[in-house]
Amino acid sequence: MNEDKYWEEQRIVNDPQEVKVYFNCEICGAEIYEGQEYYDCDVGYLCEKCFDEEQEIYKQSCERIAGEKYGD
Ligand SMILES: [Zn+2]
Questions:
Q1: How far apart are the CA of 38 and the centre of ligand 1, in A?
Q2: How close is the Cα of 71 to the center of ligand 1, in Å?
Q3: Pairs from 18-21 (Cβ < 8 Å, separation ≥ 24)
Q4: pLDDT tens digits for 14-35?
Q5: CB neighbours of 37 closer than 8 A, spacing ≥ 6?
Q6: For residue 21, what is the enclosing H or E element?
Q7: What is the pLDDT of residue 44?
Q8: pLDDT band at 72 (very low <50, low <70, confident <90, very high)
Q9: What is the 41 CA–ligand 1 centroid distance (Å)?
Q10: Do residues 50 and 72 touch, judged by C-beta distance below 8 A?
Q11: Ligand 1 mean position to 26 CA, how many Å?
């Protein structure tokens, strides 16, 4: 039995306003609810905040200037 799932279900039962959690962000674990925007990235499903941070990481790691040599 998945205990976390059990308690999550109990929490929903006890709170009628609770919306079903669709998934948790791969990085920060934030709950993404049905109907909420999310990002499907290489690392998994991300919330908006982590996607922005990932974008920064990708930008930095991919940024190159033509004519300059990298590696070696
Ligand atoms: Zn996140």
A1: 9
A2: 31
A3: none
A4: 665 667 888 999 999 999 988 8
A5: 48
A6: strand 21-24
A7: 87
A8: low
A9: 12
A10: no
A11: 6
Separation of CA 6 and ligand 1 centre (Å): 23
- Written as one string, the DSSP assignment of 27-54 is TT--EEETT---EEETTEEE-HHHHHHH
CA 32 to centroid of ligand 1, rounded, Å: 9
Model confidence at 1, in pLDDT bands (50, 70, 90)? low
- Provide the token pair at 21: 């959690």
Ligand 1 geometric centre to CA of 70 (Å): 31
Task: Specify the pLDDT at position 13.
Answer: 66
The pLDDT > 70 percentage for the chain reads 86
pLDDT at 38 over 80: yes
What is the CA 28 to chain-centroid distance, rounded?
A: 7
